[in-house]
Amino acid sequence: MHPLLLHHRPVIVHTLSSSSSAAAAASLLSPRLAALSLSTMAFSSSSLTLLSISLQSIPSFIGSDSFKGSNSSLWFKNVTLRSARDRNLERSRASMSVSVGSQAVVDDALFWDYKPSSGFLFPGQGAQAVGMGKDAQNLPAAADLYKKANDILGFDLLDICINGPKEKLDSTVISQPAIYVTSLAAVELLRAPDGGQQIIDSVDVTCGLSLGEYTALAFSGAFSFEDGLKLVKLRGEAMQEAADAAKSAMVSVIGLDSEKVQQLCDAANQEVDEANKVQIANYLCPGNYAVSGGVKGVQAVEAKAKSFKARMTVRLAVAGAFHTRFMEPAVSRLEAALAATEIRTPKIPVISNVDAQPHADPDTIKKILARQVTSPVQWESTVKTLITKGLKKSYELGPGKVIAGIVKRIDKSADIENIGA
Q1: I need a surface site. Which of 128, 215, 224, 399 has the fewest CB within 10 A?
Q2: Which GO terms describe its molecular function (predicted)?
């Protein structure tokens, strides 16, 4: 959330070269950040071009001083020197960025070799429940988030979270901002007691289910709390409008593996026209996959589910067929809003719902977020990858315990703790 820029003073070395290639080397300038800018003048027969190449190692906040700024209240503070293993990992995160004029291109593969140990997981739409936020109102740092939200949203969000009514809280335009704010309020509730800050400092990966990806990006410092909430507000409105424009729905299919669910979708699609076709929208966990599509297609899935030996189907209380082509009308609005939003390289890996990979380049993150509303959620792959890569402890921050339940379905031995608000 509230982003924090690491300031550095690069050493500039000027080298004349007749070649178009440049060599770079990095030197440690401070415990906080190592950066080397190598400016190379490349000559051609007709022009002189200045190419600036930067090698940067982006640390997981090593150093002994506080990183809290005026716009970084949810991020790491009072961080101490990390272990030798962590320092080696930081050095392995060196990324090359090429600057032309004022634009910088960040190597999007910066985090792809991540080795997680502790992670924050944030819930998506559907986790909301009347009464959430009740604990947050008693902690000034958490309550302040709701006050900031009121100014952006134009209504009393905390009152709706605590008192409902349920129908209002469940609406897409309300539930998405409510979950975003309540999940980040949960971070403040975790921070408050002794040992809470140490837990936050230890987190080296984060992700979120659908909407929760925005929460994870805010926590990682990719954008501010306020900018993230504005995006979430617009996202909810755009998705609601797209849902209103077509007769669509979502249904959870319980008790089948993903291959069987795909076969079920194929069978249903043979009985409906193009406008009603369905697809897997959420790959949640073994035995639980959400299918989205036209209402007639969803009805066909429900009718055929037992013949495919599904245990049950559960129609989801959402506005429409999220994470399918039905959300295409929302994409252009999201793209415009994302283009106008300042997004920075996250301070820790944030795993995308679209491809289950972390992305570092702000422009790539913007494209991924725009694609997310029409792309299937790869949550099962995300959790399996985190566990395979060595994740030892994770925390679900926000309302409900949906994420913890899914993680346990994927790995019964997984160590995950819920921090509500």
Answers
A1: 224
A2: [acyl-carrier-protein] S-malonyltransferase activity
